[in-house]
């Protein structure tokens, strides 16, 4: 069983309506399963991960991006040391779920 752990998160930009955070995680990390009140965008800068939704997995690597829909449970499994930008509305709310 893989242990769930939090990524390193750094605030990059903080605007009036939007926020950009950088996420970093090491190969093998499983990030917490969660959903959000609004959609957001993940842009992979380095490495590789699988973004798991209930019905489909998405392999993301350097240069790829995805819009994460609101109110959908999802989780990231890091394949190669990973760094990504997470662009989201400032008022977004997250709900976390144990595996």
Structure description:
With 99 residues, this protein is an all-beta fold. The chain has one domain (1-7, 25-87): Sandwich (Jelly Rolls), CATH 2.60.120. It has no helices and eight strands. Strands 1, 2, 4, 5, 6 and 7 form a six-stranded antiparallel β-sheet that branches. Strands 3-8 form a two-stranded antiparallel ribbon. A hairpin with a 3-residue loop joins strand 4 (40-53) and strand 5. The termini are close together. The model has no long low-confidence stretch (mean pLDDT 96).
Oligomeric nature of the chains: single chain
Q: From the alpha-carbon coordinates, what is the Rg to the nearest angstrom?
A: 13 Å
Q: Which outline best applies?
A: globular
How many β-strands, per DSSP? 8
- Distance N to C terminus: 10 Å
Name of the top-level CATH class? Mainly Beta
Count of folded domains: 1
Strand content bin? over 45%
Question: How many individual helices?
Answer: 0
CATH architecture: Sandwich
Helix content: under 10%
Q: What structural class is derived from the secondary structure elements?
A: mainly beta
> Unreliable runs, pLDDT <50, ≥5 residues?
none
CATH topology: Jelly Rolls
Question: Secondary-structure element sequence?
Answer: EEEEEEEE
For the report, how would you describe the main beta sheet?
6 strands, antiparallel
Mean pLDDT: 96
The CATH superfamily bears the name: Jelly Rolls
Topology:
Blueprint: E1 8-14, E2 18-25, E3 33-36, E4 40-53, E5 57-61, E6 65-68, E7 74-89, E8 94-97
Antiparallel strand pairs: 1-2, 2-7, 3-8, 4-5, 4-6, 4-7
